[in-house]
Structures are given as structure tokens and as C-alpha cells.
Amino acid sequence: MDKKSILITGGAGFIGSHVVRLFVNKYPDTTIVNYDKLTYAGNLENLLDVERSSNYRFEKGDILDEKKLAAVFEEYKIDAVIHLAAESHVDRSISNPLEFVNTNITGTATLMNVAKEFWNGNFENKLFYHVSTDEVYGSLGETGYFTEETPYDPRSPYSASKASSDHLVRAYFHTYGFPIVISNCSNNYGANQFPEKLIPLFINNIKSNLPLPVYGKGDNVRDWLWVVDHAQAIDVIFNNSKLGETYNIGGNNEWTNIALIKALCKIMDQKLGRKEGDSEKLITYVKDREGHDKRYAIDASKLKRDLDWEPSIQFEEGLEDTVDWYLKNEEWLSRVTSGDYKNYYQKQYQER
Ligand code: NAD
Ligand code: DAU
After folding, report:
1. Does the domain at residues 5-189+225-252+294-312 carry the CATH identifier 3.40.50.720?
2. Which of 1, 55, 135, 273 is deepest in the core (most CB within 10 A)?
3. Where are the domains positioned within the chain?
């Protein structure tokens, strides 16, 4: 590692916390600054195991706050950024699109601009790593895969805001020679994911014997990747990619929602000592998500070919590990599902 000080934005969130943990432990001589606004999705409890490490710092701040960012760059002499801070949930983008425009587009532009000013044209050994999503490519039919050459076709306010931020990051590369790399990843799952997303929401509902709200027919397809594998892919790309490159990251692991939910119910029955089939009875088909993308599937062969990365574990193993984590961390789950979560849940699901 040739960087002395790395700013990780969104490090208190789901994926960010796994990236922070990996970098703090793997690079003890590098200062890792976690810059996070601590929205509903940010939680410092995700980082209890590393918060006392001598190379870890936390700075509470908004990526829209140019002044605060400039002060943080100056204080830590930041020479690389891994940018994960974002509004990340598609359903929330449907009810509140402007929040996504502000955070994901203007926030990314503000952060990049502060980095550009601070580095002041001297980009040697500097890097701005932008973490993005496969949703920028749109929706697939029954066949085919997203490659790095697939034209952008975002279809939700969330994916449009991420696509827009990707375009801005590439524009800085072409216009200013700003040192960037982008990765676009498929659906992540694992410990510490906020229970608005499919897998932790359904684990929580099964545990509490609440209905499992399946959108539409449950035949939408997602390509699932264990979050620890995503963090490892980010590390490999961060250290080895050429500037200006894009890499797709995926699990090569497609599931229809309903097949995944049934697999999850089976694991939960075993773990909770219920009769097989009990949890499945909670499945409830509800009104579909507006503009619901049918299928995502990543072709990650470029990452395998160029940088020799591939997922480390099978989905069944990762899913069981995830269920175990949520059952073991009941307090974490009950804290994040109290207060505002209850209002969100009611609003999101009562009319479906
Ligand atoms: P998350 O919602 O769990 O966490 C987002 C984090 O960003 C939170 O800690 C939040 O406090 C912080 N944040 C939000 N607005 C901020 C602001 N204005 N200033 C500073 N911090 C702010 O998200 P996640 O699922 O961990 O996703 C992280 C990144 O990875 C996002 O950019 C997302 O688009 C991308 N991504 C996610 C997935 C996935 O499956 N979750 C897949 C591919 C890409
Ligand atoms: O593909 C990467 C993206 O994956 C990331 O960029 C996003 O940040 C992340 O949220 C995720 O987006 P999805 O919309 O695919 O994830 P979500 O967990 O919200 O939904 C997964 C699938 O499950 C999707 O087809 C919708 C469906 N679903 C979801 C919820 C929350 C349901 O059927 N019922 C639900 O209650």
C-alpha cells in the first residue's frame, strides 16, 4: 500500500463498514478516515471492533459540506478516496427522489471538487475510487449479462442518480486527468445490512412472525454477492487498477426473489426450531414496486481476467452465515428497527 491517508465516505453504512474494517486491519501504516453523516443508514455500532485501532479516525460530516470536507482533506493530507456515501434504497428513491439527486449527484460532485482543489493538479499517487451499482445498466430480459460496455439505461431515481454520478466521475477523468476508478456491483448481502433491504427485512419479519411482502410475482432476478467479497474486490481494484478503468463485480449467483425467499425460510425454520414450511406461510404477495427492474446479472469476467478476483464463498454458506449474524445480534436489530424505522415500514407497506 503506497497511500498514507485514505478517506472512506459512508464508512458507517453496510458496505462501507466492511471496507473500513478490511482496510484498517490490512493496512496498519495507513490512516483510514471514515467520513459519514450518520443518516438512518449509518451506524457506528457496525465498527465497534475497529474503533480503537490507532490508524482509524471518524469524522461526522456531509459530503455536501464543502468546508468541512476541505478541512478534513487538509488535516489528514488525504491522498485517496473510496466513495461509498449515498442514499441507497430504491423504494426510498421512489418516494423521495430529490434526496437522491442531492446526495448522490451533488454530493459526489462536491466531494470530487474538494479533492481536485486539494490535490491541485498534482495527481501523482492519488486516487478517487467511486463505488457504484449494476442498476445503472437498466433491466435485463431472460438472457444476457451486464458488461462494462453495456450502455447506461437507469430506470429508478436511485439508479439514475448513481448513473449521473458515474458520468460526472468519468467527466473529471477526461476533462482534468483526475485519477479515478469505478466499480459497479450487484446486490450485496451479509452482516450489518439495514433491514429495509430484502434479505435483512425478511429475516427480521420471519423472526417476528410478520408477513413477508413479496413484490409482484416474486419472479424478479438478482445476482447476490457476499459483502465481504465485495470489500475484497474493492481492495484488489484499489491497489491494482489502471486509472480511468471500470470493473463490474458480481456473484455469478442469480436467484428469483421467490426462490431466495423460500431458501431463507427453510434456513430460518431450522435455526428457530420451527416445523419445515412454517415460515413460508408468512409469504404475502403485495403490489409491485413501481418500474421494478426485472433482472440484473453481472459479467465479472474482466475482473477475473485482469485482476484475478472471484467470489470466495457459495451463496448457501453466505446466507446461513448472515442468518446466524442477525440471530446473534438481536440488540443491533432491535435498535435499528425502533423509532423512525416503524414510520418508514408503515408508510412503505401499509398501502401495498
Ligand atoms: P447504506 O445505505 O447502508 O449506507 C450509506 C452510508 O452513507 C450511511 O452510513 C450513511 O450515513 C452515509 N451517507 C448518506 N448520505 C450521506 C451524506 N450526505 N454525507 C455523508 N455520508 C452519507 O448503503 P450501502 O448499501 O452500504 O451502499 C454503499 C454504496 O455502495 C452506495 O454508493 C451504493 O450505491 C453502492 N452499492 C450498494 C449495493 C448494495 O447491494 N447495497 C450494491 C452495489 C453498489
Ligand atoms: O443491484 C445493486 C443494488 O441492489 C444496489 O445498488 C442497491 O443499493 C440495493 O438496494 C439493491 O437494490 P434492489 O432494489 O435490487 O434491492 P432490494 O433489497 O430493495 O430488493 C431486492 C429484490 O427484492 C427486488 O427485486 C425487490 C424485491 N423486494 C424488496 C423488498 C424490500 C420485495 O419483493 N419485497 C420487499 O419488501
Report:
1. yes
2. 135
3. 5-189+225-252+294-312
Long-range CB contacts (within 8 A, 24+) of 74-79: 74/118, 76/5, 76/7, 76/31, 76/33, 77/4, 77/5, 78/5, 78/6, 78/7, 78/33, 78/115, 78/118, 79/3, 79/4, 79/5, 79/6, 79/125, 79/126, 79/127
Ligand 1 centroid vs 11 CA: distance in angstroms? 8
Check if 56 is active-site: no
Cα gap 78→172, rounded to integer Å = 18
Annotated active-site residue 326? The verdict is no
Query: For the segment 195-246, what is each residue's pLDDT rounded down to a tens digit?
Result: 999 999 999 999 999 999 999 999 999 999 999 999 999 999 999 999 999 9
Q: What is the pLDDT of residues 29-54, one digit of tens each?
A: 999 999 999 999 999 999 999 999 99
Q: Is the pTM of this model over 0.90?
A: yes
135 lines ligand 2 (CB under 6 A): yes
Rounded Cα distance, 270 and 327, in Å: 12
76 is catalytic: no
Calpha distance 248→131 (Å, rounded): 10
Q: Pick the atom of ligand 1 nearest to 11's CA.
A: 9
In the set 35, 158, 172, 345, the catalytic residue is 158
**Closest alpha carbon to 233 in 19, 12, 4:** 19
b/e sequence 183-208, b meaning 16+ C-beta within 10 Å: bbbbbbbbbbbbbbbbbbbbbbbbbe
Ligand in closest contact with the CA of 10? 1
Radius of gyration for the chain, computed over Cα atoms and rounded to the nearest angstrom: 20
Distance CA(311)–CA(224), nearest Å, equals 10
- Locate 152 and state its grid cell: 447506461
